[in-house]
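[job 0412] stage=fold_complex status=start
inputs:
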Amino acid sequence: MPIDSTLIAGRPARWDGVLDWCQMLSGLGLILFMWAHMILVASVIIGPGVMNALARFFEHTGLAQVGGPVIFLVFLGHFLLAARKVPFRFEGQKMIWSHARMMRHTDTWLWLVQVVSAMVILLMGSIHMWVVLTDLPITAAKSAARIQGGFWLAFYLLLLPMVELHVGVGFYRIGVKWGFVKDRERKRFKKAENLLTAMFIAIGLITLIRFWFLSA
Amino acid sequence: MPRLLKFNIFRYNPQDPGSKPHMDSFVLEETDSMTLFIALNRIREEQDPSLQFDFCCRAGICGSCGMVVNGRPGLACHTKTVDLPGDVTLLPLPVFRLVGDLSVDTGAWFREMYNKVESWIHTSKSFDQSAVEERMDNEVAEQIYELDRCVECGCCVAACGTARLRDDFLGAVALNRIARFAVDPRDERTDRDYYEIIGNDRGIFGCMGLLACEDVCPKNLPLQNQLGFLRRKMGITAIKTLFRR
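[job 0412] stage=fold_complex status=done
writing structure:
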């Protein structure tokens, strides 16, 4: 911190708090969406009929047609809000990576997991949303055909853990950052969150396997 | 048979144009109840009198001997060698200006920070030295004392990802300072006054919640809880401010 007795007038600091709220709320909204999304997709494990019925419900009520693009906008908005904290200059990148290597501190590394997974999700999530939303209605047979092509299986095998890690770490971070989780509960909360993340990855993998073997 | 400890110590003297940043190794026989402070003094006395590092109280009170011990900021006098592996790497605290070797100038940083957060009781009452001291609830006094235990070693700032990325970030120590005045009934500042100081990305909203401050603080200050408390308090003030204009 340099020593100075002067100040720069007119810095738009008034919005920092509001933007922080928006970042947290958009993140929370997306976490809830991802959990609901997992329920929809994993319903194929019970049977393709269940998944089709759920998908039909979302399309008949217009939730897919309207909700899809809305989620996409929240997704982009959340990226822009969170990107305020990500160093995009080489100098900053070098600094934060060497800092994490020096500290060997899990929560510092977890932030970098969030940053890296965010970039992957921004690209792959956009592709996923485009592919699904431009080819409504969603049916188990269409999803299975896509997965069985091979390329999309590899695509989702990468996207799935990235999303679940980002969601898991994000949920943990909101809890500790906003003081909803106190220092004494932190360790337990983190353990529970890791377990939840592992569980969601497992459910996602089972879902992918189910699609792979689903006969049209 | 005592262990032989190998110390890899950062060396650089900015005053000397011929000096280049490098690492020096020193080997020392471990003794009973040895702290890093003792080890460094022995190295200076027995092996290299030019080694620079700060210390004062030897007891975790003055906060002078903060340094990076095997990657983690901590106090040399608080660190027992028995808790360390045989290879110990010592670096000066980042963020602060380097004086030489392991010695950094935390004073200038803290002075500036205290000016920024106006680290004193703001009251309209004039002080009457003959009057009996005003009473305070014991619980409140203890709350203040808990946060006042900070020794200003700078470890929380050196461990902070945000502070490494932006040099105008106030850091956990400053936010803890504000939290201390926020619970003090003698300080007449309102949430809006505090918001002017820390209600932005240089203050509480710049914090990314990496919690390294909480994990390295040698005095185990409840930084995580204070940061969460301030974020909620200032978050609510941010919304209020938005609607008030």
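[job 0412] summary: DSSP finds nine helices and seven strands in chain B.
[job 0412] exit 0
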